[in-house]
Amino acid sequence: MAREFSRSDRVAAEVQRELATTIQMEFRNPKLGFITVNAVRVSRDLDVAKVYVGVMNADEDQIKESLEILNKSAPWLRHALSDRVRMRRVPELRFVFDESIERGARLTSLIEGLDLPNKEDSSENS
To answer: For residues 82 and 48, is the Cβ–Cβ distance under 8 A?
Structure first.
């Protein structure tokens, strides 16, 4: 019988949960924007975790600066994770900007800007 989730998926979920809490509660840097941990992908050998983050209400320069701060702080965050998760070896963290939320907001605004006929208007014409 096949497993429902692979080990790397379970590790990714745990790392995402703990990393989001750690960044929100313990990581203090005034230059860091409002960060959301959207997803984590862990390599099959559990050696590297690619962390997809979103930066709310930020321009391109702020996003770049936030990613630099997170990537420079990756060893500290990895150590903090090692105190929280029960693993022999915590994966190396690499932070990447996740454009999905920004893309979704852009698509929503485009859809809202469309002039679509209402159902009420089309039923009155019939």
So the answer is: no
Could you state, in order of their start, the residue ranges of all structural domains in the chain?
7-125
Question: What CATH number does domain 7-125 carry, 3.30.300.20, 2.60.120.10, 3.40.50.300, 2.60.40.10?
Answer: 3.30.300.20
φ and ψ at residue 87, rounded to 5 degrees: -140, 150
Query: Up-side HSE of residue 119: CA atoms within 13 Å toward CB?
Result: 0
Q: Report the C-alpha gap between 78 and 1 in whole angstroms.
A: 34
- Give yes or no for a contact between 39 and 73, defined as CB atoms under 8 angstroms apart: no
Q: Dump pLDDT digits (tens) for 18-72.
A: 999 998 888 888 788 788 899 999 998 889 999 999 888 778 888 899 999 999 9
Identify each DSSP E strand in the chain by its residue range. 34-42, 48-56, 92-97
pTM higher than 0.85: no
